[in-house]
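User:
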Amino acid sequence: MNASAISRALELLINIRQPVFLWGPPGIGKSQVVRQTAERANLQLIDLRAILLDPVDLRGLPRITEDATAQWCTPAFFPREGRGILFLDERNAAPPLVQASCYQLILDRRLGEYELPEGWTVIAAGNRESDRAVAHRMPSALANRFVHIDFTVDLDQWLLWAEVSGISPDIVAFLRFRPSLLHDFDPERSGRAFPSPRSWEFASRFLEQRPDPAILDDLLIGTVGPAAAAELIAFLDIRRSLPSVEDILNDPHTLEIPTDPAVLFALCEMAGRAADPERARPLLHFADRLPDEFSVLLVREAVRTCREIAHSDDFARWAERHAEVLI
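Assistant: Predicted structure:
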């Protein structure tokens, strides 16, 4: 499932208090989807990194009562009331003794004298054993208690998220051009850094800080790996050598059209993101001069940026001329 479908599935399963386990490779946003689902549903979220816990952290410590019996002191982080999600992240990376401590909590919604409140649901997440991340095999009895969902990376879903999350336009444009690099994880490789939704977010953060070019290459290599970094750096060099948006707006009929597909791709992304109602006519005139696939790319990005353009007469004329491509 992609992120949007998982979020809808979680909302349904939370309503019936069904434990869920999200599976997927590192860096694809499993924990982020859980957080966003909790926010939309106005639910509390307790995020427990299972790999950081000791068994006693969950079970608590015993104390002697007045009648000389032992009573377990439940940890303060467990919920006592309300509605929410108890999120056991990196659940299958935890040591076997910690997993055993979670067993009763997931199966019976209890842990010793503690009982999970009625309005709370357990959601867990972890990497697959094939990812060669830290992972312990889940006991079959426990596995049978979860609904298991495989998380898949989807570029369109990520782009929607990137648009509202302030991801660098340079990163967005590059990944539109090279969608296979959104997540390129191979557990057989020995490299420490690799492209993932998480690492592209990191790269976006420091690109926005405009780092010294002398350190930019090494920062990107250390974030998304050498191959993806080399492609991004080349793409950024092309993007920065493009004519400005003002050049396009001032001379849409005679401005020289690049022939390199990578240059055209970057140019369309840049021009489309500058769209507004006053710029619609020159942008659409410029789009008319591009090869069909790039004309559609520019107009699609322009409409994504400013939906009013789709209701203009200039857009209607452009759509009529490109009807065969749009069908």
